[in-house]
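Long-time lurker. I teach an intro course on protein structure, and each term I like to show students one example going from raw sequence to a predicted 3D structure in token notation. This year I'd like something fresh instead of my usual example. Would anyone be willing to generate the tokens for the chain below so I can use it in lecture? Attribution to the forum is fine with me.
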Amino acid sequence: MVSAVSSQAATLNPLAYTALEEDNKSRQPAANVTPDDSDRGPATQVSWSQDALDRLLAALKQGPDAAQQAVDAWSQAGADRFAAFQARSEAIHRQSAINKVDHQLKMLDWREETNKSLASTVKYLQKSAIKWQNTAPVPEVQLSDAEINAILKKVAPRGIDPSKIGGADTYSFGDDGKIYTFRKDGTAWVHEGGVPTSEAEKQRGIQAFNESIQLWSSKIEYPSVSRADLIAQRDALMAQ
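-- Reply from a regular --
Happy to contribute to a lecture. Here you go:
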């Protein structure tokens, strides 16, 4: 049984060829149909179900008008199915676009919070750098044996391990705003926290502050699209 018909030589419409049960290789135009050149077009192949073919053949037997009505009904059903498919596709595409805008808005929120945190860090470093630069160096002071024993006893509950002293070039910890430094030679020294002990240390500190400020500042990014534009774009999509 032939399951497809050609519109190359159609008469009333592209589907006016009949399929013969006796010979599935033969095709012939309906005997009661008059050719109409205005309905000829490029060849198309249309798949038909057995039920659709049976209904078309039955309509052809009833005459040209019935055949035309049958094909018109089939064509309209196909157009309706295509329109429904197109509407679903447009809805899916629109929702996808809305989801994309929502994601951009969330990323914009995250970027704004991140920028605030980065800006706060940069501001703190800048203030610390200015204070460091404006502070005159104060040399560190060497501790006596009694002072060493006293400070080690004080910080022992914090887990400060005296056995580590001498294992590295320096071993340092802070307490009450002071920095205690134990050197490999067995000596111990103390100086105020946040105060350079020499001009050379001061310059090294200024350079370190500047590098840190530059690093954290470079992490601040400004979005290329505004929140207002994204909201307007989403509203336009939802209104469609």
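Some talking points for your students: The longest strand covers residues 170-175. The longest helix spans residues 64-133.
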